[in-house]
What does this fold into?
Amino acid sequence: MRRRLLFALLACGLVFSAAIQSAHGAEVTQTADARLKAIYDAEWAWRMDQFAQVKDSEGWSASGERLPRVDPAAQQARLAYWTKVLAGLDRIGVSDLSAEERVNYAVFRTSIEALANDVRFKGYEMPFNSDSSFWAHLAPDRGLRDADEYRRHIARMRDIPRYFDENIANMRNGLARGFSVPRVTLAGRDASIRPFTNADPAANPFMAPFDQMPDSIPAAIRSELRRQGEEALREAVIPAYVGLLDFMQQEYLPQARTSIAADAMPDGKAYYAAQIREYTTLDLTADQIHEIGLSEVARIEAEMHRIMAKSGFKGDIADFIRFLRTDPQFIAKTPRELLSYSAYVAKKMDGKLKDAFGLLPRYRFTIRPVPDAIAPFWTAGRGGLEACWMNTYDLPSRPLYNIPALTLHECSPGHSFQAALALEAPARPDFRRETYFSGYGEGWGLYSEWLGGKLGIYETPYEQFGQLSYEMWRAARLVIDTGIHSRGWSRDQAIAYLRDRTALSTHEVETEVDRYISWPGQALAYKLGELTIRRLRAEAERRLGEKFDQRAFHDAILALGSVPLPVLERRIEEFIAAGGR
It folds into this structure.
């Protein structure tokens, strides 16, 4: 009896001890979660103010009544704040966090490190590249929702002179230390400024939203808002853009550096390594990425030869690519024909979504042409929540056999589909909803192109070759980007490498290479992200066997929202361990 009593007391003690430990563990987790939440909530509120953002009616960030400060003092204040944030994160034990907050920690820390690095390397002294700029997207491309939004738009128009002055001062500092966009990529780029210097309100992009004011705004108020808009255009916007155009033509273009490699700039090797880390979220060196690229290029080349043979074409691969680039059957006769082709592919994909996804978004996108002011220098397309943009500039350079892959990437189930799911996702911290990682997002876009083949989207060998050409385009980027920025490649060498291995037009090849030259590291994200997702899928298929369901696999990826690729890998490992649920 004494022995049974002893065992009973011992068991009670163990249960009591376990209960105390469990309660202590829960308390530690709650405390760690609360500390992390306090840090990222405070930082997001501060960041909204720093970058002049307000919340719209749906809780998303929107432009406020001013433009952000970009002068060196403001930049250094941001670096000091983010350095303190990172120190605060160092004091939180990641193992003490709940599962969801561990993801929040990884997302938040990765994004803050990238923001801080950009200031450390004074990236603000090079505030544009051959693809994107600080001046081209200040004018909304459609009507605004209410009178308050128009008032904020007018206030921002008034703030443009100050904003441009600060950017110009930063660019002058960059020129002085050899930190600039390479001169060879800038030919003709000043043309994107010119439309905003037009004194005719009917032709200036800043006045376009005033032509689409909703009827819910009383007529008298609409008239007054237009008057104020035209006044701000005349007094602030046009003089600022005229001054910027003069600076670009007289100072920046003549003095921009003649070298093209990132590692030729001040602290260039470390800068390029930081760019690789920011855009891929992976710990890979330039040499490792270059070798991955060469391997992928060889694999895709073999597949291209197979598809060429399937088409019945007689000749070598160079002849086939020449045929694809020049035969009239592949060229849209009007912008509408190209847009209609894209719309057909998107609608065809609509019928396949139920086979590939368990959760479908309600939000719908439209397809629009890229605005004329930026189309000559823009990429072939870009997807977003409201619209999927297709470039209709220079139609012979936009062959139709590429449109299916482009539409899958940019529209559905690529970026527009992704954005709609993110909009309708369960409640998450604001910074999670609005943080974007290129490795995840662009990796999914390229994976969507590959998925189109499995779903039967490509109807002809030419469209199949177009998909492979686009995949080759992204694989070649790994070789070209690292070749330019760490191996001394010339622009001509890069152009030849891309031209000889894809069916991209000459215009697209040159535009893309200039993008890689002026935007180091960003182009690496696509293929490395796609390789990660395809590797994870193959692993899930192997380990789950008949239990594998691509709908659940895709839902598991997209339900995360945008995350660093290592976080995605951990999530899919959990997915497999849970039996594919």
In short: Residues 147-258 form one domain. Residues 161 and 240 are 5 Å apart (CA to CA). The beta strands are 53-55, 61-63, 366-369, 381-383, 387-390. The chain has three domains: 21-124, 147-258, 271-533.
